[in-house]
Specification:
Radius of gyration: 28 Å
Number of strands: 2
Largest sheet: 2 strands, antiparallel
Number of helices: 2
Distance between the termini: 53 Å
Shape: rod-shaped
Oligomer: single chain
Structural class: mainly alpha
């Protein structure tokens, strides 16, 4: 098999590329978000489907219009409660992921100060910063 590495198999050093590093970090964060939301969403759908099945079973035991109305009002109250709880869970997930993933990346957008060879502060620019003419 032909060696795909032109240096004869020796590992080459990785070139520094801040933009690629940033995009990679954002893709990893996006994957983590999607996985968290998919797990949460699937759990919620399963919970609601179980509750709807129980509602249908209870509805089958209702013998008069008053009992049907009470069963439906009970089901509707559970739906409102479940969706409010799910909204709170999604907000909590968003906040937790935002803090753990996005906040540390804020340094990419800020200007860093470094000491120049003359001992004075020198502002370095991050990606997206506009340089003064």
């Amino acid at each position: 098999m032909q060696d795909s590495n032109p240096a004869g198999g020796a590992a080459r050093g990785r070139l520094a590329n801040p933009l690629l590093d940033f995009v990679t970090a954002m893709a990893e964060a996006q994957l983590k978000y999607w996985q968290a939301y998919q797990v949460e969403g699937a759990a919620f759908v399963a919970k609601r489907m179980r509750a709807d099945l129980e509602f249908l079973r209870a509805l089958g035991h209702c013998g008069d219009p008053q009992a049907i109305a009470e069963c439906q009002w009970s089901w509707l109250g559970d739906v409102r409660k479940d969706y409010a709880e799910e909204l709170a869970r999604l907000a909590g997930t968003t906040l937790a992921l935002g803090i753990s993933e996005i906040v540390p990346m804020g340094s990419v957008f800020t200007r860093a100060k470094s000491k120049a060879s003359n001992g004075l502060d020198q502002t370095t620019h991050g990606p997206g910063d506009r340089m003064a003419p």
